[in-house]
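Format notes (please read before filing issues)

Several people have asked whether sequences and C-alpha cells are stored in separate files. They are not. Every record keeps both together, in the order shown below: the sequence lines, then the C-alpha cell lines. Line labels are part of the format and must not be stripped during preprocessing.
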Amino acid sequence: MREKISVIVPVYGVEKVLARCVDSILAQTYQNLEIILVDDGSFDNCPAICDRYASQYENIIVVHKKNGGLTSAWKEGVRHASADLLGFVDSDDYIEPGMYERLAQTLLKHNADISMAGLIFDYADGDYPPRKETNRMQKEVYTQEELYSLYPVLLNDGSFIGRSLQPSRVTKLFRRHVVEQNLALWDERVSVGEDLQMVFAAFLDAKIICTIPDYYPYHYWYHMSSMTGGHDARYLEKIKLLRERMEAISDAKAVYDFRPQIRNDFLSLAIMAVKNEIWRNHTDSFFQIQKNVKRMCQDASVQEALTYHTMDRIGLSVKIYIFMMKHSLTIPCYLVTKIFFTLYYWIGSQKG
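Then the structure lines:
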C-alpha cells in the first residue's frame, strides 16, 4: 500500500468556502489520504460542517479546540496525524486533483524530506488575473551539501523580499520528523510569517529537498478586501516578533548565521508596514497617520535595520524609500505610497 499522507486543515470562519476546500482534497488522485479538520473554535457553522464530513467519510478526522490561531491549529493537527507524510491546506483555498500525487511521487523517488510546488493567487475580483508564485530554487533535487550552498541567500539574496525559500507550508509535502521535531520552535504568538518560521526550521533539518518546476496546483483565494482593506495597526509589532523568533530558530539550529538576512527580511516587511499604515488606514486622520508613520520609522529596531541592512540588489525606488524612512520624511512617504498603489491597482484592473 502507498504511504499514507495526513492533510491538516485549520478551520475558522470559512463556512461559505469550506466545502470547496474539503471536496478538493477528497478528489485527490492519491488515494491513501487522511484528512484532519482542526476546528479552531470557529463561531459559525464550520464545526457542524466538519462533523458532517467526518460522518460521511472514514478518512476524515475532526478536532475541536479553543481558538488559538493558525499555528496552534496546525500544530494540533500534527499531533493527531497518523501518517509519516504531512501536507497542509488552508480552509479557504483549494487544490488540484493531482497535487499530492505529484508531490509524493517526487518525494519518494528521491527519498527526500520535503517536496515543493508553486501556487496560484486567485483573486475574488475577476478583473484581476491569477498570479503565479514559486520558489527561487533552480534545481529539482538538492542534496544536503547543495542545500548548504543556498544558506547565504536562503532568506534574503540582497533584494527586496529576496527570499530564495518560498515560505508557504501549503505548497509542500513534509516527512513527519522535520515537522514534529520543530513544534516547540514554532511560536503560536506569531501571526505574520507563521509559515516562514515553520518552513525555515524544517528546511534546516532536511537532508534532501525536491522541487517540481512550473507546477502550480495550489489555489490561494485572494479577496479584494485583503488588498484594499484590512489595516493592521499592530503590524510592526508582529513583524518584530517574527524577527525575534527567526533569530531564535537560527541560533537553535546553529548551522549558519542567518541574522543579517533576517534583518534584511525584517526591513522589507517594515517598509511594507509603513505602506500598510498609509494605504490601508481609513480610520485615522491625515495628521494621525503622519504621527503613526513617524513613530514606526523612529522605532529602534527599524532604525537599526535601516542603518545596517546589507541589501545591495534593491532598485532606486526602494533606496529612496529607505532614505525617507531613515530620516522620518513622513509626507514624502505618504505621497509616494498613495501614488504608487493608486496606479498599481488601476493598472491591475485594466489587465483583466
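For reference, the curators noted about this record: The longest helix spans residues 259-280. The longest strand covers residues 33-40.
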